[in-house]
Amino acid sequence: xxxxxxxxxxxxxxSHKRNKPTAKMRGNISPSTRKKxxxxxxxxxxxxxxxxxxxxxIERRWKLTKTTEKDLIHGCIVCHSWFDSTxxxxxxxxxxxxxx
Length: 100
Description:
The chain is mainly alpha-helical and 100 residues long. Helices cover 38% and strands 8% of the residues.
């Protein structure tokens, strides 16, 4: 038995653009948002004050709006690990978010 060769007849692509952004588009952090977080934290961890920091999402799962500075926190490696792996860390981040 062999494969039968047929004519390829794909559906035409739609001419309209997307109505709403994808989850990846909503999760992107704009340069202005990064700048606002950096100004708020002054380049240090917002929990312990360490200078080696990176962006951490506070609660991002299935959020339908664009990422804002209230969804982000600057955290060092140790604090980021604490945020992600402990109940106290997650609660601390949510309390911090409420204060913003």
